[in-house]
Write the structure tokens for this entry.
Amino acid sequence: MTVLVRDLRPDDRSDVETFARVRHLALPHILWTPDAIRHHLARTPPEAHARSLVAEEDGEVTGTAQLSLAHDSPEPGQGMLNIYVHPERTRRGAGGALVRAAEEHLAAHGATKLFAWLLDEPDNRAFAERRGYRAGRSAHFLSLDLTRAVLPPLPAPVPAGVELRTAADFSDDPRPLFELDAETMADEPSDVDAELSDFQAWVAQFWEHPLLDRELTTVVLADGRPAAFSVAYTDGGSRYATAMTGTARAYRGRGLAKLAKTDSLRRARAAGHTQALTGNDTGNGPMLAINKWLGYEICATEVRYVRELG
């Protein structure tokens, strides 16, 4: 049994499809397609030193890794690595080999603190702790069966001064959505602070993301400006995911995030999607309450592990 770690070959269709399949088997709660994988590699800024790796055992891809520096954080030296191994190929060396390769790469580019998400399972926790990682914050994955869900109706009429739009309405000039995204992301619970300040980079990475569904992304206008949104991703099949729901600081406490997410879900069901996915930090009580109200149920939990490099 020989485990080899190498870079993903983004121009090899079969290699990318295998990467996506193994990652999906290990983590089925997030949308991730071959196009999204290629987009991530091509559009992540060079200063992130991003890589996607695979572990092969006798020619079979058994594990995947995605790693990068937190290039958009005001604190330097932070690296991120996420390792996923085929659930039927664990305990065979793939995970350990990927972690070693990822750590070496990130340390060589100045990382002094590493962050990794792991599904909250005993074997995963033991794996991380043996390698010097300690547990930090946690987050839930949630799912909603749109074929059975009783979605709440939209208010009729919507509150005075409020208007429902979609991201598609901003195709000619998405800058107002960039500004809203930057403000809400700054307040998102996280171990790694991020600052969105480069509009063109945001367009390349997020606005042009292949999974972004602009027609299903609801934008709530208040006083004529985007005040809240619920960002929708779809995978070309039956699954729909909320990538981000947020409200501008000046408009919080008015139920606009709930309105945005309800409208997006109703659009998704009307478009034929049957499963809705989302995720929330366990400390994000307001968003968890909204998702519970909408009928989402927790389907898995992940834990963020951190390691300081000496």
